[in-house]
Amino acid sequence: MNAPVIKVEDVHKRFHSLEVLKGINLTVAGGEVVVIMGPSGSGKSTFLRCLNHLEKIDGGRIEINGHFIGYRQGAGGKLIEESDRKVARQRAEIGMVFQRFNLFPHMTVIENVMEAPVLVKGIPRDVARQRAKDLLEQVGLPEKAGVYPARLSGGQQQRVAIARALAMDPKVMLFDEPTSALDPELVGEVLDTMKILATSGMTMVCVTHEVGFAREVADRAVLMDGGVVVEEGEPEAFFTAPQHSRTKQFLSKIL
Amino acid sequence: MGTAAMTPLLGVYLDFDSQFFFKILFSTSYIWPAILVVEITLVAQTAGIILGFPLALGRMSRNPLFKLPVDFYLWIFRGTPLILQILFIYDGTAEIFNNPVILYPITRNAVVAGTLALALNEAAYMTEIIRAGLQAVDPGQVDAAKALGMTRWQALRRVVIPQALRIIVPPTFNEYINMSKNTSLLVVMGGVVELVATAQAFYSANFRVFEALGVAAIWYLIITTGLGQVQSMIEKRFGERQDVVPVERSSFVRRVILGGLGRR
């Protein structure tokens, strides 16, 4: 097994009085694909958003590529939040794909893909444009470069969103229910794109309920419920012989 | 009375001096004030827009050090009459500071003082228009920008503001039209030869009140209609949006009222 790329230790998160993450531990090795499942409200999306510091955490630590995310340790092990600029630099190495795509509606497809490399990394426009074209080719949408996102189907938008994230050459990709907002017939094209990415050796953490994807591609499946990791294991064992009663209960509803 | 013919109308005699009216209608006596009104409108409104952006960011800030001063500013400028603010800035500052030379550009120049007062007042209203525009942008857009490694400022500049402008531009043009009418309040300072002051100067000489005010009204209509034309031109251009799929247009009545009936 490769060296761990993501190390999560005892992460706590609360929204006011509601504790949504009650001590999450998770280690993801380089090139590993981890699928996180769980009922709604179990904290899985919040957890994913903590991984790139879109949400602050109230306790524990998150380490990606050897860097603490969002915080540094002060005297006595106290966590101090990093500056906006520092956090931004950390996020640049972590790609994220959202349930609602979140493409920039005022930019064409290729501008969406080029924007961050040019603005954040200072890559020359023509170099970024060529790279964006290659990525659109990769996700199967080379002919949509000059089109605005509103003209694309949900599946096409999500594939552009994946290309946009990849344009930053991230070391890790986070997927937050990437197919939940799609019409059923469009789910396949997005999952296919994700499968290609997984087999290329990308480290991926996916919150999804796509059991087929999990069984075929994931190295590990994780069940979250009530703000904790209930069970984790190899997908085959996880789906056919779950150990925990809550896992059985959850799987009986989605299988 | 007067030289005009007395025409009986419903038992009332209409005494309208059309000769005088048409003599002054397009005279330089009104053209120059009209140009001044347009100039003050453009400068004061544009300054109000520019001031409104940082104020809107301050109002949205979670840091009370930024938020509270802006809240206080809005409370003062939206909670008191504009005419009072004009007098405060022109006469009030002169009195309270003993009118030092450094304040002469304001206290001895009614046009500058008036434009400043209009701009400061407008900034308070623009703050709310801009804030509403910025807050109408989907928060998911900021998430996406941040996830790509943009700083908060980069996300604001490249992602939020361009989308907010589409929402901000139409009401801002209405503000230009309102501003052109609000310039008439500068008459209280007595030093700005705008359209109302011009009308007053005419009728205090010959008591042709209706005619003199009528010409001023016509000039305001020319200015507001002109600004309205610019507004619809800009809105048409903004209307050709690329970021939404065009839908078939039908009238509001047809869509909402008849459409609802048809579905029964």
Structure description:
The complex is a heterodimer of chains A (255) and B (264). In chain A, helix 3 crosses helix 4, helix 3 packs parallel to helix 5 and helix 4 packs across helix 5. The radius of gyration of chain A is 18 Å and the shape is globular. Chain A contains nine helices and twelve strands. In chain A, strand 1 and strand 2 form a beta hairpin. In chain A, the strands form three sheets. Chain A has a six-stranded mixed beta sheet, sandwiched between helices. A four-stranded antiparallel beta sheet of chain A has the order 2-1-4-5, with helices on one face. A two-stranded antiparallel ribbon of chain A has the order 6-7. Chain A has 255 residues and is α/β, with parallel strands linked by helices. Chain B has a two-stranded antiparallel sheet. The radius of gyration of chain B is 24 Å and the shape is flat. The model of chain B has no long low-confidence stretch (mean pLDDT 89). Chains A and B meet through helix 2, strand 8, helix 3 and helix 5 of A and helix 7 and helix 8 of B.
